[in-house]
Amino acid sequence: MDMEKLTKQQIVLVTLLVSFVTSIATGIVTVALMDQAPAGVTQTINRVVERTIEKVVTPPADNSAAVITREVVVVKEDDKIVESVDKNKDSIVRIYANNNNAGDVQAKQFIGLGTIVSKDGLIATGDIFADMSGQYLVTIDNNIFYNVAILAKKETDQFYFLKIIQSKKSPVVFTPVTFSDSDNLKLGQTVIAWGGQVQNSVSTGIVSSLIDQANKSEETNFQTATTTLREIVAINTNINLTDSISGGPLLNLYGEMVGLRVSPSLSDKYTFIPANILKKEVVNYASIQ
Fold first, then answer.
1. How many Cβ atoms sit within 10 Å of the Cβ of residue 233?
2. 8 Å CB contact between 276 and 183
3. DSSP 163-221
4. Confidence band (pLDDT; 50, 70, 90) for 266?
5. pLDDT per position as a tens digit, 26-58
6. What CATH number belongs to 87-164?
7. E-state strands within 13-167
8. Hey, what's the torsion of the CAs at 206, 211, 214, 217, to 10 degrees?
9. Residues 82-86: contacts with CB within 8 Å, 24+ apart?
10. In CA terms, which of 81, 101, 126, 257 is 20 to 30 Å from 195?
11. What was the pLDDT predicted at 50?
């Protein structure tokens, strides 16, 4: 074919054909390279989420139609993690045993973290107390220390509740965490574990396994029916927890608490208890003064 003798229409058709073949080849090469790319590269790409925001602009006085504009905002997972941590930084306390009862800060022994679950100072933590009759203090910012009372717990529970002791005349309003429905957790979901003895530290990972059990219910006024419900009773993650600090929350990317880190017993390897189990107990303990 003599290219110099092609008409304008033939040139356009040839150009379209070349563009089509090139685009197909580019797509094939891209997919092949993505399959061969390291996990870190594809994970970074997959973590970019797009959300569409609609804005309704108020119409002018002449009653013309409202204008709806749409913009695509790119939200990175890193940004969601930062927001989640920042949202909960005032809900984490450090717990100390006051061994000499003399108020000497240097003599205080760090024993674990706690998570504030009510505005009046109810705190959830792991099974960290060797001496139930001892004196314990908590602090949020390492400046102000509060005395706490240890509330009774069930023998089967892996967690304790503490209550901050404060003046009734001028009580402090604390910042509690927001509970998530932990029964909606999914395998592979991104989670954030909170730790740190001296200062806050966080680790991220995914839900690696969910341990559930069957609960039977329920009776009605008209008939008795038994329904089997599944309830999550323990959460495992792939987060490499190198310390033994318990009492910190497990958060999702929305800043909601999905679990609490507890001290694993010799017979129980599960690290986090679900938020739904805590929520049931918070109702019972929240009214205690």
1. 16
2. yes
3. EE---SSSPPPP-PPEEP-GGG--TT-EEEEEE-SSS-EEEEEEEEEEEEEEEEEEE-S
4. very low
5. 888 777 776 776 655 555 555 554 444 455 556
6. 2.40.10.10
7. 48-57, 67-76, 92-98, 108-116, 122-126, 136-139, 145-150, 159-164
8. -50
9. 83/255, 84/192, 84/251, 84/252, 84/253, 84/254, 84/255, 85/192, 85/194, 85/200, 85/202, 85/251
10. 101
11. 47
- What are the respective helix, strand and coil percentages of the chain, to the nearest 5? 25, 40, 35
Model pLDDT for residues 132-164, shown as the tens digit of each residue: 678 899 999 877 899 999 987 766 678 889 999
Q: Which residues pair with 95 in a beta bridge?
A: 112, 138
Report, as an integer, the average pLDDT of 221-225. 56
List all residues 6 or more positions away from 112 whose beta carbon is below 8 Å from its beta carbon.
94, 95, 125, 126, 128, 245, 246, 247
Please state the pTM of the whole predicted model: 0.69
Residue ranges of domains in the chain:
87-164, 178-285
**Structure confidence at residue 255 (pLDDT):** 96
Q: Evaluate whether 87-164 and 178-285 have a shared fold.
A: yes
Distance CA 16, CA 271 (A): 60
Q: Which CATH class is domain 178-285?
A: mainly beta
